[in-house]
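User: Okay, second chain of the day. Same drill as before: sequence in, structure tokens out.
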Amino acid sequence: MDLDDVWVYLGDFGRYQTVAFILITLVGTWLSAWQTFGVIFTTDQPPFHCRASPGFTLEKSVPRMVDQNESFAECLMYAVEKGENDTSFINTSIQVECTNGYEFVSQYDENTIVMELDLVCKDNILLSTAQSILFFGVVTGAFVSGQLSDLIGRKTVLLTAVFLQAVAGIIIYFIYVYHWFVVLLFFIGMFEEAMCLTAFVLVMEMFSPKMRTIAGCINGIAWGVGVTLLAGIAYFIRDWRKMQLAISLPCLIAIPLWFILYESVRWLLSKGRNKESFKILNKIARVNNITPPADGFVLTLGDKTIRESAPNDVTSSSSASSPATPLLIGEKRKTYTVIDICRSRIVRKNLVIMSLSWFVNSMVYYGMSLYSTNLAGDKYLNFFLLSVVEIPGFSVTLFTMMWWGRRPSLVLFHLLAGFACILIACLPRDTGDGSGFAIPLIVPAMLGKFCITCSISVTFLYGAEIFPTPLRNIGFCIVSVCGRAGSILAPFIIYLEEYSSYLPLNIFGGLCLIAGVLVPLLPETRNKPLPETMEDAEKLGETQPIQSELSKWGVAEDVKPTNGIVNYALEDSDWFNK
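Assistant: Same drill. Structure tokens below.
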């Protein structure tokens, strides 16, 4: 019985899988999303100006800027000089940097680290540096967690990262020095990415191909919901320290989860730990109220067959009838690294194209978010609206990936996002009478954000399916590193608007179109078993979609899993495959 058939036999979204899926998804999406986007509110810079010189009013001390609102200058003030009789006077012909500190004009009664440490004017670069350090931590987390997860296990890395995230988030509450703040921000980014990626891989490895699509899309929807909830958290907790504490304390859930969640069966099998694998499968069967096979589970991995009655032995499927040719797998197994990916031309090609897709997705996703901050009105409402658009984006891909497949869905959303970005770049910023051109700009901007969100949802599932089990987490984390590199570059691309308003979005749009043209070179993975070996990954494009036939394993064809909320809801879901 193939492992994918085992999950069908155990009920796919059975009781255990449903509970485990909910817990892992909430940890990997909500808690991760809060840490990723919480920095937007932590490092927010409200309007400010120089503090008035002692003995003088603000009107006399600070010049007004030549703009529509004639607001006070942010970083300059009039010099104070000594006159006759040692009296002070304002010299309006000389402007100097703020000498008395700054006053922040916050309409939301908030407190950010920018206000506490005066990270403005000449120290404004420190704010951008802090945000970049967070994403460097994310890149580091993607690489380190990928290696560790394939070496020591998905569950171990996930729950360790969640617990350490709680520790870092609690410590940062007591920090009042910039340097320590950015150090902890680096670790927060590192643990966040380890949580997000490892949770997703763990989820993907506990379902059959049909349910993997559903699980992957629900995971994406949960991310959108998590980002949306952050708007409410930030709105009601407007002090950055208390907010950081509020989004970090829930990470202590890692302690009880250690005794609830099981390790990935696929990972255990790839490491030759067959006894533990069969033990977990039997535990899941008991929880799901399903009777295990009379002779125990019999698993096929490539051309090997592993029997529960002799979990330490495997036999070649070509000689399964002859028990005289066992291969003891207690022997030392090969440890795979990124070098093994590079040795295979096909797997290497898949890695490069998927990495480009992730790079473009992350750059445009964060770039569109930065661009959309020019929406007028309440910043919390704006953030909420930009987050809500992600929920239908992740939902739509559930149907496109089941109807069309991963590859055509990714091509479509890349191309639509690219055309939307180019359309925005071609539209004027102002009408002939000088009034704003906001609404015609916002509509395609929201379309672009919607499409790039759909594209991200597809690549998350697609990226987990094209790599073999021993290298899945490594490959998945490499493409994630490339994606995070795109997010780091996004603010600098937006900065090019200082030179030309047409450059940033044309760059985003052009990269989306390039990615859309290259994606057809990837193999389609819809309804195909996860590749277990390098050979499986190289032949993935030739592999036929599976139609689970449990009857050949002694299970009646009309047996349908009836336990679990999701299974019940999808009992008549054959239309998904039409």
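Residues 272-332 form one domain.

User: Thanks, on to the next one.
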